[in-house]
Amino acid sequence: MATWKMFLLQDSASPLMEQLSFFHDHTLMILLMITVLVGYLMSSLFFNKYNYRYLLEGQTIEVIWTILPAVTLIFIALPSLRLLYLLDEINNPSVSMKSIGHQWYWSYEYTDFKNIEFDSYMIPSSELKKSGFRLLDVDNRAVLPYNSQIRLMVTAADVLHSWTIPALSVKIDATPGRLNQVSFLLNRTGLFFGQCSEICGANHSFMPIVIESISPPFFIKWVSKMGEA
After folding, report:
1. How is 39-91 classified by DSSP, letter by letter?
2. What backbone phi and psi angles, to 5 degrees, belong to 157?
3. What is the enclosing helix (H) or strand (E) of 120?
4. Would the keyword ATP-binding be found if you checked this record's keyword annotation (predicted)?
5. Nearest-angstrom CA–CA distance, 208 and 229
6. By the 8 A CB rule, do 96 and 153 touch?
7. What is the average per-residue pLDDT within 88-98?
8. Pairing between strand 105-110 and 95-102?
9. Mean per-residue pLDDT for 191-204?
């Protein structure tokens, strides 16, 4: 989750988020090189005393400064397109989970198992434990196994919502009457926090998302316990 003085992206919890972080660094390095080069050229123009009164055209330099930006854009576009296709790839899922957005809470259904569905409300500040996170903790967390391919299906019961967890590189719209899906893989255990990122009404800020990533054996025990309840 995001903390104070955090200037970079959150630590990734999925292979896709790792690739997005690498692409972010790659693009920033290109931008830094362009900024340094242009800054150096502009400062040299300001401070040198050379001039060439008969300069009318420079076809060679014009070709160079047309081709170089095109090559630079190719170096940014190719990894970007690769990532776009990877983000939309739907692999064979081990677990499917359905999330339904309401005003203003989330409902979860584990469609692979019988009778596992629950609502997830934000814990009010007055009831929050000292170890809890204000405006981020919920009473019922969505539990998923790590190192397993997850298929998330998202819809809404009333207005537009958006199911978003930055650490997993997941941001998917919850639209009434439409079922959207996204695939991701958790590569470590932990708690991962997110929020609705679509302005959906008065309490838009108070419908957080919490994913608890646990090992597959403990996930099976959790499923058995929830099935008996």
Report:
1. HHHHHHHHH-----TT----HHHHHHHHHHHHHHHHHHHHHHHHHHHHHH---
2. -100, -15
3. strand 117-120
4. no
5. 25
6. yes
7. 88
8. antiparallel
9. 88
Residues 6+ apart with CB under 8 A from 148: 94, 95, 185, 186, 216
Please count the other Cβ atoms lying within 10 Å of the Cβ belonging to residue 134. Answer: 10
Query: Which residues make Cβ contacts (< 8 Å) with residue 128, sequence separation at least 6?
Result: 134, 137
DSSP label of 122: B
Confidence of residue 10 (pLDDT cuts 50, 70, 90): confident
Structure tokens at 224: 């058995």
User: What value does the mean pLDDT of the chain take?
Assistant: 89
Its pTM stands at 0.82
User: Interior CA angle at 122 toward 121 and 124, to 5°?
Assistant: 125
Scanning the chain, the segments in alpha helix (DSSP H) are 15-47, 59-88, 216-228
Interval 141-151 mean pLDDT: 92
Q: Tell me the two tokens of residue 24.
A: 């972010």
Taking alpha carbons only, the member of 72, 40, 215, 47 closest to residue 145 is: 215
Tokens 């919850």, residue?
Answer: 174
Residue 177's contacts (CB-CB under 8 Å, 6 or more residues apart) are 155
β-strands 209-214, 190-196 pairing: antiparallel
The model's pLDDT over 56-73, given as tens digits with 9 standing for 90+, comes to: 788 888 899 899 999 999
